[in-house]
């Protein structure tokens, strides 16, 4: 049997990039996967078809992570459709880069709403619906620890917030056997951070491996943390960054 057979996963932000790779991987490992998107309806539908064509189960739900109500009803819809909830992956995130002198308060609010507040709300709603021995996996960033370029202060702050949130949630949910972890990728080739720019070329020399990560490499780590073999890892922020922070 597959490692995640009979499990139900909910991925906040699954239509593109790391989230989409995670939808595919968890479905391949046997989970029924519900995921949200806000803008990318076409990618979301294509992803559902791709998973179903491979024999898996997936459900796309439009839900803006800036909205408390949208997050709560999306989790409710997932539980109603698949009957329960075992795994939550908080992947939705935005990156706004600007010198602090020019950084807009709209971008500050948006970054905190999507990268932090939505993680608290989804974790709360999931905890209320989740089975014992469940899994919560946040997608943080190596930038919580190392921010080697200018303009990313607010993004780094938002990802550093997840380090503390993860520790506290692990304490709340440990008695139920629910683990909570924060995965911290380095540069990964996605629409947020394409591997074909001057910016990408400027980052590679500071990484031990000298290359961008692939979305499948991140999804593989999510699958491990979501699986039965990772039951003794909780409260941890775990680097998967090609040596960016080494
Ligand atoms: P992308 O921009 O490629 O994809 C972002 C995903 O999040 C999309 O599916 C998008 O859906 C969804 N999303 C964004 N805003 C919202 C919203 N308001 N409501 C619902 N869904 C939303 O990003 P990546 O795949 O690169 O990043 C995924 C996560 O990984 C983020 O948290 C990011 O900070 C983190 N990360 C990325 C790194 C990288 O180098 N790529 C490095 C370290 C961390 P839609 O298009 O429908 O809005």
Keywords:
alpha/beta; 246 residues; Rossmann fold; globular; 7-stranded parallel sheet; binds NADPH dihydro-nicotinamide-adenine-dinucleotide phosphate
Structural account:
The chain is an alpha/beta fold. The protein has helices spanning 17-28, 41-53, 68-82, 105-129, 153-173, 198-203, 215-226; strands at 8-12, 32-37, 57-62, 87-90, 135-139, 179-185, 237-240. A 7-stranded parallel sheet has the order 3-2-1-4-5-6-7, with helices on both faces. Helix 1 (17-28) packs across helix 7 (215-226), helix 3 packs parallel to helix 4 and helix 4 (105-129) packs parallel to helix 5. It is globular and about 50 Å long. The mean pLDDT is 98. It binds NADPH dihydro-nicotinamide-adenine-dinucleotide phosphate. Residues 13-19, 36-40, 64-66, 91-95, 114, 139, 141, 185, 187-188, 190-193 line the site of NADPH dihydro-nicotinamide-adenine-dinucleotide phosphate.
Helix-strand blueprint:
Elements: E1 8-12, H1 17-28, E2 32-37, H2 41-53, E3 57-62, H3 68-82, E4 87-90, H4 105-129, E5 135-139, H5 153-173, E6 179-185, H6 198-203, H7 215-226, E7 237-240
Parallel strand pairs: 1-2, 1-4, 2-3, 4-5, 5-6, 6-7
Helix pairs in contact: 1-2, 1-7, 3-4, 4-5
This protein binds NADPH dihydro-nicotinamide-adenine-dinucleotide phosphate (NDP).
């Amino acid at each position: 049997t597959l490692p995640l057979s009979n499990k139900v996963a909910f991925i906040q932000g699954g239509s593109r990039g790391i989230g989409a790779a995670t939808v595919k991987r968890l479905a391949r490992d046997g989970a029924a996967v519900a995921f949200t998107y806000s803008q990318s309806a076409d990618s979301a539908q294509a992803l559902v078809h791709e998973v179903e064509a491979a024999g898996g189960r997936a459900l796309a739900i439009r839900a803006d992570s800036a909205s408390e109500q949208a997050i709560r009803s999306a989790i409710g819809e997932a539980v109603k459709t698949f009957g329960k909830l075992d795994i939550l992956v908080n992947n939705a995130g935005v990156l706004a880069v600007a010198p602090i002198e020019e950084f807009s308060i709209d971008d500050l609010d948006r970054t905190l709403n999507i990268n932090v507040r939505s993680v608290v709300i989804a974790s709360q709603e999931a905890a209320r619906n989740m089975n014992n021995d469940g899994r919560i996996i946040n997608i943080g960033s190596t930038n919580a620890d190392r921010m080697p370029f200018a303009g990313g202060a607010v993004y780094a702050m938002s990802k550093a917030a997840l380090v503390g949130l993860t520790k506290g949630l692990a304490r709340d949910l440990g008695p139920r056997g629910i683990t909570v972890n924060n995965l911290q990728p380095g540069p990964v080739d996605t629409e947020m951070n394409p591997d074909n720019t001057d910016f990408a070329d400027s980052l590679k020399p500071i990484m031990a491996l000298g290359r961008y990560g692939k979305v499948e490499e991140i999804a593989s780590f999510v699958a491990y943390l979501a699986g039965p073999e990772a039951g003794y890892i909780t409260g941890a922020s775990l680097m998967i960054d090609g040596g960016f922070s080494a």
